[in-house]
Design goal:
By secondary structure, the protein is of the alpha/beta class. It is built from 5 helices and 5 strands. Strands 2-1-3-4-5 form a 5-stranded parallel β-sheet, sandwiched between helices. The protein is globular, with a radius of gyration of 13 Å.
Length: 131
């Protein structure tokens, strides 16, 4: 699978098809290539198969939550430097800290502000390229 890369390749791990569709449309319009996974095993498979620049991680998924999957990805040395950004409706006190504690590099709350999403992602990609 070859993706035409302009700004970067983003793996979006999300079980909700409506959310995947919205994010794909927004980010493709901003010249990002999107790879989608609906669960943890698909996400790991997609990481193995591509040059992923950033992972957008849904936290509430049925098979394995995003905290567990993030920790699992960060424990694999060849993936440990890929920024993972939690995308979640969990906005209670402590949820951001729990995401960061699991290894996420950032946190975007749902509903997603589509006007600022691409700038947020660009900051994470630039920061990871400068590390």
């Amino acid at each position: 699978m070859t993706l035409e890369v302009k700004k970067g390749i983003i793996l979006y791990v999300e079980d909700n098809p409506d959310n995947r569709s919205l994010i794909r449309r927004v980010l493709e319009a901003e010249d990002y290539a999107i790879v989608e996974a609906v669960n943890a095993s698909q996400a790991l498979e997609k990481l193995e198969g591509g040059n992923i620049d950033l992972v957008l991680m849904d936290i509430n998924m049925p098979d394995m939550d995003g905290y567990t999957l993030t920790a699992k990805i960060k424990a694999i040395s060849k993936f440990s430097k890929i920024p993972i950004v939690a995308v979640t409706a969990n906005v209670m006190r402590g949820d951001r800290e729990k995401s960061l504690g699991a290894g996420c590099d950032g946190y975007i709350q749902k509903p997603i502000d589509i006007d600022t999403l691409s700038q947020q992602i660009e900051r994470f990609i630039i920061r990871s390229n400068n590390v």
